[in-house]
Amino acid sequence: MRLSSAESKDNSKIGSQYSFLARKVHCFFIIVFFCSVQIVPSAAKRSGIFSNFKKKIESGSMGNIVRMAKYDRAANVANAVTSLQLLNQDLKWHRLDDGVMGGSSETLQVCTAIDGFLNFQGTLNTNGGGFTSIRAPIPTLSDDVSAIRLRFRGDGKTYKVLLTNGQGFKSPSWQIDLPTKASKSSQEIVLPLNLFRPSFGPRTVSEKDLAKYKLIPSEMKEIGFMLSLKLSDGTSNPEETFGTGIFDFSLLLESIDLVEN
């Protein structure tokens, strides 16, 4: 039987479509087969993967992920400690430790009932972490403020004083080193605002970019104190003024005052 020209064209079109469909189906089964033997692990392999994952968690090698997930900053803010004043306003201090990044450090805050001092103290763990801090919202400062005067009792470690506008990593955190002596006697220091250095999280602004940033007192919304692996210029805090491994620290803050031009 001989087909007409039109029928031949229709059959040719159907055949072409079938061939295209067949190639698609063939490719699909090749992909499924490849996945079954190369990508999707067998039941035994899956069991091994889950077992290894569990061992990592139990051994602590993934503990930083677990600690990061469990860190409750909102609870820290809710449990803020009221101590000291600035511009006749009570300051409410909350802790912010390296647990927010999976670290193991922990801050304890003690406000003494007699003299109202704030004891920034706790334990710092450099295994998987490296900083601990306390922060407090502050009233609006005058742009005439040129320095901060602190009275404190230290433990020989070098801390940092922080000023921020409260917008997180979007804006710089202004930092300056606070060296202390291991003594029961009070120390007093004046920290000029023009010596505070900007940083974004762990990244310190380079010398060549410092001119791009300016600390404006009236924009600052939060003050803080930190003990960290890094000094305000981004260099390492020496072991003799920081510590190593797991160690305790204590900084007794007696007063915070402002110096104006």
What features would you describe in this structure?
There is one protein chain. The chain is of the alpha+beta class and 261 residues long. 25% of the residues lie in helices and 36% in strands. The chain has four helices and 13 strands. The protein has helices at 5-39, 43-59, 63-70, 73-78; strands at 81-86, 89-97, 106-111, 118-125, 131-137, 145-153, 158-164, 173-179, 187-192, 197-200, 203-204, 222-228, 246-260. The strands form two sheets. Strands 1-2-5-12-7-8-10-11 form an eight-stranded antiparallel beta sheet. The protein has a five-stranded antiparallel beta sheet with strand order 3-4-13-6-9, with no helix packed on it. Strand 7 (158-164) and strand 8 (173-179) form a beta hairpin. The chain is globular and about 40 Å long. The chain starts with a helix and ends with a strand. Mean pLDDT is 77; it is low at 1-40, 63-71 and 98-104.
